[in-house]
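Hi C.,

You asked whether I'd gotten around to modeling the 144-residue construct. I have! Everything is below, sequence then structure, no commentary in between.
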Amino acid sequence: MKTLHPVAGTLALATILTFWLSTALTEILGSTEAIRTVKLAIPWGLLVLVPAIAVTGFSGFRLGGKWRHRAVAAKKKRMPLIALNGLLVLVPCALILRQLAMAGEFGTAFYAVQALELCAGAINIVLMVLNFRDGLRLKRRIAT
């Protein structure tokens, strides 16, 4: 668990960062075809992201156990928010954006969903970075 947890967490964070950055950069610098390609690829990346988040959550709860440390408590509070944001906002947005991109519909609905996806993704990135930071602090505490 001590190896699995940080590996899964890093993979999950890297995947979300990749989704977010590729979306933002193609919107700023890319063509409609580049945007379409990113929106078609992201749902395939969910096959990596969803299990990585699940493993991170499961292993984190196992490692945290009955610890009363405030960093563990904070991580335990953030993890359900990360999961719910992912399952209730980010996954549906990715699937809707995929459908709209496949149909070539890059209008108001596309950009409204895209804005929601970018905001929710940014929230998950912040929450995951906070968990990563607290995990590193806990690791240093255990090592000393």
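If it helps when you're writing up: The two ends are 19 Å apart (CA to CA).

Thanks,
B.
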